[in-house]
Amino acid sequence: MTIRRGIPPLLVVLALAGCTAEEPSGIQLGTARRAPVSEVVEAPATIGARAAATLRAPATGTLTKLHVRDGDTVAKGDVLAKISSPEARGRLSQARQAERLASRPSAPRPAFAAPTLRGFDGRAFAGLDRKVRSDFAQARSAARKVGDATARKRLIAAIDLAERRHRAQRAALGAITKDLTRSVNGVLSQLTGQLSTGLGSLTSSMASLQAASRSQAKAAVKTAESVVKGLTIKAPFDGVVTLGRSSGGGGATDALGGLLGRLPAGLPTQAPPDGGGSGGGPAVATGVPVAAGDAIVTVTDVSELTISADVDETDVLLVERGTAARIELDAVPGATYTAKVTGVGVTPMAGTTGGVSYPVRLTLGPGRFDDGRKAPAPKPGMSAVARLTVRESPGALAVPASAVVTSGRDSVVWAVRGGAAERRVVRLGAQGDALVEVLTGLREGERVVVKGADAVRQGQKLP
């Protein structure tokens, strides 16, 4: 990266040097005096627009109307073009139909009653008990008719014993059936609870799926509506029109083409071609078929021009927000534009000399020719050279740049003391092309070697 320093008037250099042509050794002397010093960093730059948006076809169709031509100035919201796309409108119709189906209310959940075991309680044996009691009564009545008293007594006793045994067996059977009924009903109740829980979870899951389906259907409708709405292409902001894709000036691609990537599954789409627009896509004209993603119109906002400069890593730490700069354009020779740094990037880029550079953004001011005439406004994409004034000292203690010799990490100046050379380590401030600022190590009015300093030795006699 080339660094160009500020060049003071020739008279200032000559006054500081105070050189004499009579010195045969090639060594010349000068005087440390007060003078303005400016340090300037030079960097290649490109003119950019405030914003640029490439508006693309949201779906495959035909360009039915083109309302603008190259170079037209448009306002935000102006209709620029219209596209006919039966495919996009068909997707919208399908999405709305899917939404109606997903929005239908689901059938109510049927009530599930717990089954119970019946028929093993006392009522189930009531008829049998009555029949048995009637049989015992008939047997006892027949026994009483027996003439033999002893036989009659034994027979009645046997009937009574049989009836008591029957009652005991009946009571035992009733207890057993009651316990069995209770156990079976308990198991059935537990199974019913588990089944109800399972059905409840299933019902909840089905409800969640239906809600998700409705949400997806609504999203599909919104996306399809946005695509159809995008068939009428409007200017996103005030600017100048370029048909197809703009080849320079920076900016961002309009989000209209991004709708294609957000279409839900099941809705077919066509990916935008690489490059798109005028760089390789179809011509932009009424009646021309277009594919999804084809660039139709680029709108560039030139109300405020910006500059993007690539500053070398060795200089970028000197640049900060608010740094003033002068801009020279290849397209406008003899003119200089004012500029000011608005931001310094932190992402490095590979430099042309093997190092790295950093992007610096500036706002562009008015320009003037050397004779004072107003310079024309540049166009986005033009190449330029930015000269950034990184340090400026209007009343610096200055010496010619040739007086400073680098020795390791030190900056050295040879001062004249008692007619001999004295080595002085100095600290430098602003460093111009012809003059440098000396912060410490010298006093105003001291004589210094300004030519041939690299050949001077400590204590060497000087004229």
Automatic annotation (TrEMBL):
<protein>
    <submittedName>
        <fullName>Efflux transporter periplasmic adaptor subunit</fullName>
    </submittedName>
</protein>
<dbReference type="GO" id="GO:1990281">
    <property type="term" value="C:efflux pump complex"/>
</dbReference>
<dbReference type="InterPro" id="IPR058637">
    <property type="entry name" value="YknX-like_C"/>
</dbReference>
<dbReference type="Pfam" id="PF25989">
    <property type="entry name" value="YknX_C"/>
</dbReference>
<feature type="domain" description="YknX-like C-terminal permuted SH3-like">
    <location>
        <begin position="396"/>
        <end position="461"/>
    </location>
</feature>
<dbReference type="GO" id="GO:0015562">
    <property type="term" value="F:efflux transmembrane transporter activity"/>
</dbReference>
